[in-house]
Amino acid sequence: MGRTSDARDKILGAARALIELRGYSALGVAEICKAAGVPKGSFYYFFESKEALALAVIDEHWAGQERAWKEVLAGEAEPLQRLRRLFEVTQAAQLAGQRDCGTISGCMFGNLTLEMSNHTEAVRVRLQEIFDAQVGMIDAVVAEAFLRGDVTVADTWQAARSVVAQLEGQVLLAKLYNDTQVLGALWANCLALLGARAPGEVAAGL
Amino acid sequence: MGRTSDARDKILGAARALIELRGYSALGVAEICKAAGVPKGSFYYFFESKEALALAVIDEHWAGQERAWKEVLAGEAEPLQRLRRLFEVTQAAQLAGQRDCGTISGCMFGNLTLEMSNHTEAVRVRLQEIFDAQVGMIDAVVAEAFLRGDVTVADTWQAARSVVAQLEGQVLLAKLYNDTQVLGALWANCLALLGARAPGEVAAGL
Questions:
Q1: Could you give the ipTM of this predicted complex?
Q2: Which of A82, A185, A195, B142 is the right S-S partner for A152, CB 3.0 to 4.6 Å?
Q3: Does B113 touch chain A (CB under 8 A)?
Q4: Contact assignment for A177 to B128 by CB distance below 8 Å
């Protein structure tokens, strides 16, 4: 049983690494099993299909990211400072990935949205749920900031979605130019999108 | 000679449609030729490789989009109104695509950036040139707006890049939710990112 679950983890780990490197469509089950060091026959014992594996990789990745986002966004700091921390953590994670493999892999959810959402309905639905959750988590912090008078934007959900869009767009450019410096613009842009009161003061944590 | 160039156009057209639907990696040369209705043997007469075809598809798509952007951004209207028009044109194009094939295909350059930039250096370089050109075209309009006192942002190039990032991010979400309404946020967000003077007035064209 220990060995069995070990094989599943190996397949998941190999699939995740390969998907981050080369996307989903270009991969075959045989290649994933070879990279995982497990016999191809055992693949279908754990996963019904390559699509089921993709969903498991997505779920696992989101479980980790959701935990990290919750930790940052539910902290003690003032609401906008928590958002700032989220961007810093994102930039640090992309930089760590670049150090490990030479290139910025970007956001797995953004990558798979553009690659898969139009032809794999189950993946589209799962990714929608994840982006909804991201927007919801940011919305909660923006609403807090609004109640404190730190931001002027009234439709906090719409604003939170624009912050997520800005994050995805900047991560896309960071990947294209293989340069995490691009992500340095996220904080100032977030303040602008939220109509932050006197951005200079908020930025300084005053 | 007429028939020869016709075959090249057919291959290009089929490849473009298939790439928009399913991305690049999932496609094979045989499938592209079948969709184009040309014998597989003729493919390598026109294109050295599948990668060379991808570059030709990108170049052709950019030639059309660059023409459209120039037309909109070099118009007679006030600078920010031209940017607004660019977002309207983008939303209309995505809506037309959705009507044609049921789903929003998104931005071909964004799609290929996330799918290909990390493992096809020639494509990365070409896409960088295209995004540089897009930022440059928006930068020129923002600089005009700055000189008129319509926007407060001083680093117009950086602001233009953030506008492009917002565009890519919102198009990604529009594709994910298969809903062009998402793109309605672009104009207000652009004004926020540029630090537009009295957005209400600018929005009303005053």
A1: 0.93
A2: A195
A3: yes
A4: yes
Interhelix angle B108-116/B156-177, nearest 10 degrees: 90
More confident residue, B101 or A110: A110
Q: Which residues of A touch B158 (CB under 8 A)?
A: 185
Question: Do B36 and B55 sit in the same domain of this protein?
Answer: no
Return the pLDDT at B5. Answer: 67
Gyration radius (Cα) of chain A, Å: 19
Q: pLDDT category, A206, cuts 50, 70, 90?
A: very low
**A106, A114, A161 ranked by CB distance to B111: nearest:** A114
* One domain for residues B14 and B108: no
Q: For the residues B86-109, what does the mean pLDDT come to?
A: 94
- Residues on chain B touching A110 (C-beta within 8 angstroms): 114, 172
Helices (H), chain A: 2-22, 29-36, 43-46, 50-73, 79-101, 108-116, 121-147, 156-177, 186-193, 199-203
Q: Are A18 and A57 in a shared domain?
A: no
**CATH number for the domain harbouring residue A4:** 1.10.10.60
Q: In sequence order, which ranges of A74-120 are alpha helices (DSSP H)?
A: 79-101, 108-116
Domain hosting A14: range is: 1-47
Do B39 and B55 belong together in one domain? no
Total structural domains in chain A?
2
Residues A40, A69, single domain; the answer is no
DSSP-assigned beta bridge partners for residue A196? A151
On whether any CB of chain B is under 8 Å from the CB of A124, the answer is: yes
Per-residue pLDDT tens over the stretch B63-94: 999 999 999 999 889 999 999 999 999 999 99
Interface check A131 vs B, CB under 8 A:
yes
A151, β-bridge pairs? A196
From B28's Cα to the closest Cα of chain A, the distance in A is: 11
Q: Are residues A68 and A139 in the same domain?
A: yes
Each residue's pLDDT tens digit, A171-201: 999 999 999 999 999 999 999 999 997 555 5
pLDDT at B134: 98
A62 and A27 in a common domain = no
- Both ends of chain A: CA-CA distance in Å? 55
| pTM, rounded to two decimals | 0.94
